[in-house]
Amino acid sequence: MPLLEIKNLTKRFGGLLAIHDLTFQSNRGEILGLIGPNGAGKTTVFNVITGVYRPTKGRIIYKDEDVTGFPPHVLAAKGIVRTFQATSLIHDFTVLDNILVSTHLLGKPTLWGALLNSSDYRRKKDIRLQKALEILEITGLENVKGELAKNLPHGYQRRLGVAIALASNPELLLLDEPMTGMNLEEIHSMMDLLKKVQEMGVTLVLVEHHMSAVMGICNCLVVLNFGKKIAEGLPQEVSENGEVIEAYLGTKR
Question: At residue 136, what are phi and psi to the nearest 5 degrees?
């Protein structure tokens, strides 16, 4: 059953056609890989889905609702959350505080409640703290919860980016190159984490250039080249597609 449906999506920037008549769907509980050479339009697709850009034409259907052009904060409240190529951390906050900041969707305290330390304020604070502690355990960051984000090794910073996204309670998580800059050990650790997130019932859409990781965790793939879909299917099927091989290597096998 589809959680997300992309229908005939097109995005132009002046004379540049960044996405052309793109259609695909992401089913509940799966990990879908959105792949393609540099400049294929993958991040632009993410930006349109999450409301950063409004599409030139086409529709975005989420849980049977047309959410085309909705702003990012509205989509986040509905359960569509994303990560970015560059880590969006508050570098002078601790790991725990970075996660706590992102738990605001669980119940935003009022100013008067904070000033008066009301029972409702304390209850919401406790809920957010408990959620943050659960995410620390899920993501394997509990041992560094007091470290400043800027002092973390690169792999831990990328893991914290996923933790921050999970704090917003997503149903659909879009991950933009979560393994960029990682060594092999860090990549395997991130793959394990993403599988764990999937097992929690979160649907994942993944942009990633590390092909062995993509092949290892994705249930299906959509391949873009110059903004157009050139292939879709199971990882093994896509890896043997002549047009995909030509797009990546510049020659047919």
Answer: -55, -45
Rg of the chain, C-alpha, whole Å: 19
From CA 113, how far away is CA 110, in angstroms rounded?
5
Per CATH, which fold does 2-79+170-249 belong to?
A: Rossmann fold (3.40.50)
Q: What is the pLDDT of residue 103?
A: 86
Instruction: Estimate to the nearest angstrom the gap between the alpha carbon of 118 and the chain centroid.
Output: 36
CA distance 6 to 229: 12
Tens digit of each residue's pLDDT (9 = 90 or more) over 144-198:
999 999 999 999 999 999 999 999 899 999 999 999 999 999 999 999 999 999 9
pLDDT of residue 194: 97
- Tell me if the pTM is above 0.85: yes
Q: pLDDT of 73-85, one tens digit each?
A: 999 999 999 987 6
Give the residue among 155, 135, 156 at the shortest CA–CA distance from 144.
156
CB proximity list for 150: less than 8 A, separation 6 or greater? 89, 91, 92
Top pLDDT among 106 and 211 is at 211
Helices 154-166 and 119-139: crossing angle in degrees, nearest 10, is: 140
- Per domain, the residue ranges of the chain are 2-79+170-249, 91-153
- CA dihedral in degrees (51, 226, 204, 49; nearest 10)? 10
Amino acid identity at 15: G
3-state helix, strand, coil in the chain (%, to 5): 40, 25, 30
